[in-house]
């Protein structure tokens, strides 16, 4: 018989989307999970995330039942026009021709069905205002995605079968078009949001599909000139003699009165990459602390694959988080969190209560620093 799951310790969902099914938000107060870290992704859900977090408030179980996260997902990055570059096309048709691949040259009906793009400066100003109004809010979900294709135009059948319970703006069951958002444009939208996170000293939840190298390169570009100085063993020994004990991982960053252009903490959500990139993300010279979260939905939908087993075993204890990544709150979300926590504890060789405590402590550090 399985050991009883220790919900009393505190269980924290590092990444979820209950506002995609607003009817399920009413189930959150009855959930066993302590706090949900709720992501925004596009224009239709920014206010919903903020309103949901405010409506849930605090409880005896947790200071906050929900942590709001504001950000523009790479799936919707085509809806943002870079008005910070004078050479960027500002007209709707010209913009979409420039940022989509292949360019929909012969598909004017597709362009007409797309939203009028929002200026990047406006997006950043709106997100900053939301972060200012929510002191514990994070930036997310943001990132890069090389695989995603835009949904096609609604067909009559798709419109007829549209689910009225689902918040508009996502794929909603539509057939996919051949069009992708160029990676350079995704990077422009991502970098602006990462810089805002640095300015506001907020952690970030990062989406990465087939793009771990590109995400790392983007971060490395922002980190340049701010790297932590990692002392050699010889220099550490000398400093110990001069100033007292210096920890094995101690590093120092250049002093600066202005905020850094990168977030203090990053979560690679539902990480699906191999072990090798982890070593890059966790290098001691990197000035952002990088965490890795895992979900039953993405990482453990079947028997644990060798890759995910190797990844979880390779990570330091203090950089692992759990998430549901579900679009519906309630018992299913609780079950998903329990399942992934048990899986991780088994792979790490942790006793269950100890493992759940480690995961809870990691979430607290990721969110609050």
UniProtKB/TrEMBL annotation:
SUPFAM superfamilies: Metallo-dependent hydrolases (SSF51556). It holds the Pfam family TatD_DNase. Signal peptide: none annotated. Residues 231-269 are annotated as: Disordered. This is Cut9 interacting protein Scn1. The lineage of its organism: Eukaryota, Fungi, Dikarya, Ascomycota, Pezizomycotina. InterPro entries: Metal_Hydrolase, Metallo-hydrolase/TatD-type, TatD-like. It comes from Penicillium arizonense. Transmembrane segments: none annotated. It comes from the Eukaryota. One of its GO terms (molecular function) is hydrolase activity, acting on ester bonds.
């Amino acid at each position: 018989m399985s050991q009883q799951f220790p919900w009393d310790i505190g269980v924290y969902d590092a990444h979820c989307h209950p506002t995609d099914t607003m009817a399920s938000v009413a189930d959150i107060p009855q959930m066993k999970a302590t706090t949900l870290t709720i992501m925004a992704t596009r224009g239709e859900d920014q206010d919903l995330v903020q309103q949901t977090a405010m409506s849930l408030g605090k409880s005896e179980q947790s200071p906050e039942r929900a942590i709001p996260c504001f950000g523009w997902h790479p799936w919707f990055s085509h809806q943002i026009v870079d008005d910070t570059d004078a050479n960027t096309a500002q007209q709707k048709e010209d913009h979409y021709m420039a940022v989509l691949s292949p360019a929909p040259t012969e598909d004017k009906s597709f362009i007409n069905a797309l939203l009028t793009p929002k200026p990047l400066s406006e997006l950043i100003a709106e997100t900053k205002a939301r972060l200012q109004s929510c002191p514990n809010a994070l930036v997310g979900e943001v990132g890069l995605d090389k695989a995603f294709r835009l949904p096609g135009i609604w067909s009559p059948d798709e419109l007829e079968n549209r689910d009225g319970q689902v918040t508009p703006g996502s794929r909603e069951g539509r057939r996919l078009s051949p069009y992708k958002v160029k990676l350079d444009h995704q990077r422009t939208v991502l970098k602006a949001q990462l810089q805002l996170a640095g300015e506001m000293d907020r952690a970030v939840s990062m989406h990465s599909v087939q793009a771990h190298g590109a995400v790392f390169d983007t971060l490395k570009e922002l980190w340049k000139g701010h790297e932590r100085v990692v002392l050699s063993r010889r220099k550490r020994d000398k400093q110990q003699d001069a100033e007292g004990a210096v920890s094995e991982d101690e590093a120092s960053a250049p002093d600066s009165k202005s905020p850094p252009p990168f977030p203090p903490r990053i979560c690679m959500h539902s990480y699906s990459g191999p072990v090798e990139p982890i070593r890059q993300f966790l290098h001691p010279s990197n000035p952002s602390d990088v965490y890795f979260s895992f979900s039953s939905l993405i990482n453990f939908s079947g028997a644990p694959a060798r890759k995910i087993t190797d990844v979880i075993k390779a990570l330091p204890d203090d950089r692992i988080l759990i998430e549901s990544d579900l679009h519906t709150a309630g018992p299913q979300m609780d079950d998903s969190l329990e399942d992934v926590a048990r899986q991780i504890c088994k792979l790490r060789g942790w006793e269950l209560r100890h493992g759940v405590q480690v995961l809870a402590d990691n979430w607290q550090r990721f969110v609050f620093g």
